[in-house]
């Protein structure tokens, strides 16, 4: 089997105007970035507001394991399969961050014969959106320090500047830094740090905004520092929101590319799935829904994080109603949830698969709890056996669902046609979607509801300072905000080693953070990295140009 990059490089791509034409986008509404990618003009998008919306399909997954699940690959495969069975389909996914590309995780364009192309561009600089977000974020950081330097008329407490700087690279040495060294002319000495760009609240704001006006309003609300009396200082107080929107004007416009089978794909935005909501932009999703009959999108990490945030934050904020959900699982990952080590996943083990299905069952029940019809996609690996697949099918049937074996990685859209037909059947049957909690519930009760109903925790604990902070935010008018839980993606609990479907565990709340611009409260359970580090042997060691000037080593 060829590598992902070899398959992508051999693709016979169509000119991007032909891809746009499939959705009725005229060539003059496309802003080309080369021959095979373009941005969709904001004025064209604004003119779509009266069109009816297509059906929105969420692809989510079981808790991730080192064995791999293939959520993006399934998203692409399903989009291609819907096109193959005669539906007008589009795909919406996030952009890739440079940090994971050169680190350990790899790219975010799918894999095998279920990929979005151009793969190299998408996984590197693409159309420059992340660079624009980095620049806008750091402009605000510079203006905060500049304001303090020139007299500090806002009376910012230098000890309580919460706005860090960002860069789109894994660099653990920048997590905690001291700025202002070198004397009076370089500003005030203070401790700060860097986050990775995808953890920036600017990224979250861009991905939840409806248009540039909405974006400026959200940016202006971001809290960046506090005075000595603990009153907040916002981006608008600093006067940076207008200039930031100027830097983000082009980045706000969705990017249009294509799959290997020429299905239109919108690739836009990339918020962290822990510290933020982990979904592609509202602008891209809404545009696709006005142009296509079926839109397939995905949410970061497992359904306990990604799907919950997609439903409770993105769909609530954007007024979206998902028609169906696909939960991706692999036999290999189910074995790991059943206690098998990665080295022993190749041998048939029906008992381990059945034990690991408890994790899948929990995600099925949780997703159904939002009133959305559910189907399970078994992302096929060559080591899967008939007995193992049948065990999953039988278990899922017992949960009142259907599990469908999918071979899109090796066969493209043809390998996911059964899944596509099932999705259409479910979507046409209607959805009774409703968020998990009402917006007027208290912030603490929202946290408790997610912990008990989604994670099956027995108790939620937090220091008095955390509870007091939540009450202060409610008093300041932030009580109706949804909750963005930040915890390990590997478990329903806060312990990454606790796989399967644990119940009755205690969920410790370590910290809460207000994202007033994005419009949610981040609740941190355990240690969450907002600036990852590189592994001992980063992928960057194997990425290079070959003798023909082609990129090698991306995956």
Task: Please give a structural write-up.
The protein is an alpha/beta fold. 35% of the residues lie in helices and 19% in strands. It is built from 20 helices and 26 strands. The strands form seven sheets. Strands 1, 2, 3, 4, 5, 6, 14, 15, 16, 17, 18 and 19 form a twelve-stranded mixed beta sheet that branches. Strands 7-12-13 form a three-stranded antiparallel beta sheet. Strands 21-24-23 form a three-stranded mixed beta sheet.
Provide tags for this entry.
555 residues, 35% helix, twelve-stranded mixed beta sheet, alpha/beta
Provide a brief overview of the structure.
The chain is an alpha/beta fold. 35% of the residues lie in helices and 19% in strands.
Q: How helix-rich are the residues, as a percent range?
A: 25-40%
Structure annotation, total helices: 20
Beta-strand proportion = 15-25%
**What is the distance, rounded to the nearest whole angstrom, between the alpha carbons of the first and last residues?**
14 Å
How many E-type strands? 26
How are the SSEs ordered, and which strands pair?
Blueprint: H1 4-9, H2 16-22, E1 30-32, E2 38-40, H3 42-46, E3 55-61, H4 71-84, E4 89-93, H5 98-102, E5 110-111, E6 114-117, H6 119-123, H7 129-149, E7 156-161, E8 165-167, E9 177-179, E10 190-192, E11 194-196, H8 201-208, H9 212-221, E12 223-227, E13 232-234, H10 235-238, H11 241-248, E14 255-259, E15 264-267, H12 282-291, E16 294-298, H13 306-318, E17 322-329, H14 331-337, H15 350-368, E18 374-379, H16 386-398, E19 403-406, H17 408-411, H18 417-428, H19 443-453, E20 459-462, H20 464-478, E21 483-486, E22 506-509, E23 511-515, E24 520-524, E25 544-545, E26 551-552
Parallel strand pairs: 3-16, 3-17, 4-15, 4-16, 8-11, 17-18, 18-19, 20-22, 21-24
Antiparallel strand pairs: 1-2, 2-14, 5-6, 6-14, 7-12, 9-10, 12-13, 14-15, 23-24, 25-26
Helix pairs in contact: 4-18, 7-11, 9-11, 14-15, 15-16
């Amino acid at each position: 089997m060829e590598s992902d990059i070899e398959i992508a490089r051999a693709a016979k791509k169509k000119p991007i105007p032909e891809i746009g034409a499939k959705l009725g986008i005229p060539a003059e509404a496309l802003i080309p970035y080369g021959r095979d990618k373009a941005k969709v003009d904001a004025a064209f998008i604004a003119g779509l507001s009266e069109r009816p919306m297509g059906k929105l399909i969420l692809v989510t997954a079981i808790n991730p394991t080192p064995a791999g699940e293939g959520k993006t690959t399934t998203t692409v495969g399903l989009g291609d399969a819907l096109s193959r069975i005669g539906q007008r389909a589009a795909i919406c996914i996030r952009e890739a961050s440079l940090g994971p590309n050169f680190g350990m995780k790899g790219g975010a364009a799918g894999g095998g014969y279920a990929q979005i192309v151009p793969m190299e561009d998408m996984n590197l600089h693409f159309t420059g959106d992340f660079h624009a977000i980095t620049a806008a974020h750091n402009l605000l950081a510079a203006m905060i320090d500049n304001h303090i330097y020139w007299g500090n008329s806002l009376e910012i407490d230098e000890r309580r500047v919460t706005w860090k700087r960002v860069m789109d690279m894994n660099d653990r040495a920048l997590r905690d830094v001291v700025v202002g060294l070198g004397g009076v002319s370089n500003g005030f000495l203070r401790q700060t740090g860097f986050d990775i760009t995808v953890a920036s609240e600017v990224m979250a704001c861009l991905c939840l905004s409806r248009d540039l006006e909405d974006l400026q309003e959200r940016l202006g609300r971001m809290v960046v520092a506090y005075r000595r009396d603990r009153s907040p200082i916002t981006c608008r107080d600093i006067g940076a929101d207008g200039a930031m929107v100027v830097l983000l004007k082009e980045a706000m416009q969705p990017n249009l590319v294509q799959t290997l089978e020429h299905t239109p794909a919108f690739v836009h935005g990339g918020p962290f799935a822990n510290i933020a909501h982990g979904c592609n932009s509202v602008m891209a999703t809404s545009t696709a829904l006005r142009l296509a009959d079926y839109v397939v999108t995905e949410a970061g990490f497992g359904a306990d994080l990604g799907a919950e945030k997609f439903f409770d934050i993105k769909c609530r904020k954007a007024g979206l109603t998902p028609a169906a959900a696909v939960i991706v699982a692999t036999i290999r990952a189910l074995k790991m949830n059943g206690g098998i080590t990665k080295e022993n996943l190749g041998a048939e083990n029906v008992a381990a698969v059945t034990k690991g299905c408890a994790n899948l069952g929990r995600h099925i029940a949780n997703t159904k709890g939002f009133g959305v019809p559910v189907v399970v996609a078994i992302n096929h690996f060559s080591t899967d056996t008939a007995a193992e697949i049948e065990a999953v099918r039988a278990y899922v049937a017992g949960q009142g669902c259907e599990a469908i074996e999918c071979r899109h990685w090796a066969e493209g859209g043809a390998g996911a046609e059964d899944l596509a037909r099932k999705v259409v059947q479910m979507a046409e049957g209607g959805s009774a979607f409703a968020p998990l909690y009402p917006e007027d519930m208290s912030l603490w009760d929202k946290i408790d509801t997610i912990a008990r109903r989604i994670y099956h925790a027995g108790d939620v604990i937090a220091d008095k300072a955390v509870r007091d902070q939540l009450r202060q935010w409610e008093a300041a008018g932030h009580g109706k905000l949804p909750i963005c839980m930040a915890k390990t993606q590997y478990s329903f609990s806060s312990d990454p080693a606790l796989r399967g479907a644990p119940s009755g565990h205690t969920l410790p709340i370590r910290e809460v953070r207000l994202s007033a611009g994005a419009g949610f409260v981040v609740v941190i359970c355990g240690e969450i990295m907002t600036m990852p580090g590189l592994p001992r042997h980063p992928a960057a060691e194997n990425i290079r140009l070959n003798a023909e000037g082609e990129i090698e080593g991306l995956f």
